[in-house]
């Protein structure tokens, strides 16, 4: 018996087209504020114990602007580590640093956290920010401080970046402020102060050079602060598409505008500077993500998981089943909201996946952003048909579609006249057949569910005398 490479042909009930719906949304004007925070231009500040109150009028020290470099945590060192979870462990503060950094200095250390841009490599930036806040001990120490709220908001108010990196960092800080961990530390007065800062930024944000960077982080922050569910959509109108699983279940997707050319180049360089032994297969893009690429085979839509539970639809009474030994795995990082593909031609352990708004990457299983939590993976494969290597006239052969799907029915047929073969028996996913003449045969099996049909068939078989 040999493993036959499966070829799938969608049935009539599994349409491949997309249906376009424009969603009405509430527009929220977004736009940034005062002078860019530049610690290197400020005076020295006395380092205070964590329990002391912070004087918000005193800037951070000069040396804190180079904190991570002085600590020996550089992009070169980070790039050498080929395991996302090891990168995370490497980029932590010591107990002494947590204790003696002033609150304002600690806020800058968190702002300049080397793995902060991993937020943009997540399908959901809210998840990425929450993961960073809960897994970087600098943020945990910052939130422990009595003066954390004022330090975080004051720091935000001081930002006014005019270049790509600064705009991205400000967007990360907005995501951080919107996390439950930070919001729980804000009093009513803090929230009023934050709303006033957001209002100023919304007025000034249009003065930014347009790098194609989404401003949704600002509108989401506004939404969280005022608890107004009407403001949780993107700043510009989005389009919702329906894709389909192989068996025809609807999948909710959206379209997004693309980065500017400068932003694409910046993201590409950022990934290459922080990860080694990876290959960029396509440029960074906001127009599709890992789930769309892995499960839909699309580079035109963004397929979120979240409340839609889109990913699980593909392996819940559908075409894909959990497996450990099959070609063309779909790999689901189920704790980290990420999907990848292990192609049949790739070496074992090498995957291809789209990294959030970053590039399409060939990488090792664990050589990914730590927020993907690479230790928690499951593998899924589509059905395959097994059968003989060679056929002989007059002999009986068995073809089997595996794995067996109890929720599906199986219809077998052969692409030749009925007089050229004899069906011996059919038992769901198993066919026994005798070939009566020398000819070329294709063996097909339609796998059917209530929502659609997928056809699996073999490569051509020629009988021999």
Please, could you describe this protein's structure?
The chain is an alpha+beta fold and 465 residues long. The protein has 3 domains: 39-231, no CATH class; 237-381, no CATH class; 384-464, Sandwich (Immunoglobulin-like). Helices cover 28% and strands 22% of the residues. The strands form 6 sheets. It has a 5-stranded antiparallel beta sheet, with no helix packed on it. The protein has a 4-stranded antiparallel beta sheet with strand order 2-21-20-16, with no helix packed on it. Strands 7-12-8-9 form a 4-stranded antiparallel beta sheet, covered by helices on one side. Helix 5 packs across helix 8 (148-157) and helix 9 runs parallel beside helix 12. The two termini are 19 Å apart. Mean pLDDT is 80; it is low at 1-60 and 228-238.
Q: Give the proportion of residues in helices.
A: 25-40%
* Helix run count: 15
Distance between the termini: 19 Å
Percent in strands:
15-25%
How many β strands by DSSP?
22
Low-confidence stretches: 1-60, 228-238
Major sheet attributes: 5 strands, antiparallel
Protein structure class: alpha+beta
Can you list the strand order of the major beta sheet?
1-13-15-18-17
Work out the radius of gyration: 27 Å
> Can you tell me the overall shape?
elongated
Number of domains: 3
Q: What is the averaged pLDDT score?
A: 80
